Amino acid sequence: MKRATRLSASAHASQTHRAIEYIGLRVAVTRSPSKERIGISGVVVDETKNTFVIEKDDGKEVTVPKQSSSFRFKEGGKAFDVDGSDIAFRPEDRPKKTR
Fold first, then answer.
1. Per-residue model confidence as pLDDT tens digits over 26-37
2. Residue 94 has pLDDT above 80, yes or no
3. pLDDT of 2
4. What is the rounded CA–CA span in Å between residue 86 and residue 68?
5. What is the CB-side half-sphere exposure of residue 22 using CA atoms within 13 A?
6. What is the domain range of residue 62?
7. DSSP states of 10-45
8. At a CB cut-off of 8 Å and minimum separation 6, what does 81 contact?
9. How many folded domains does the chain comprise?
10. What CATH number has the domain bearing residue 23?
């Protein structure tokens, strides 16, 4: 029974990250098949099923695919990592996916 509890806690953390709104959060790309994208950081200004649009500190916008990428988000002084493949669905479908 303890094993199920641990798995549930892990699943809950994963679902929590799936359920939040990413637009407006600070983000950094930590893994990408394109080496040029690793290290890109800024604020998420738009999101689609497959991409984030990140406004860098210099004001330029960059579109980064979610698939095969990982991201580190900062919210309220806390940071958390998300595998883009885990959130590759439309933002408006997010509440349905976390049930």
1. 999 999 999 999
2. no
3. 43
4. 10
5. 33
6. 2-97
7. HHHHHHHHHHS--TT-EEEEEE-SSTTTTT-EEEEE
8. 30, 70, 71, 72, 73
9. 1
10. 2.30.30.210
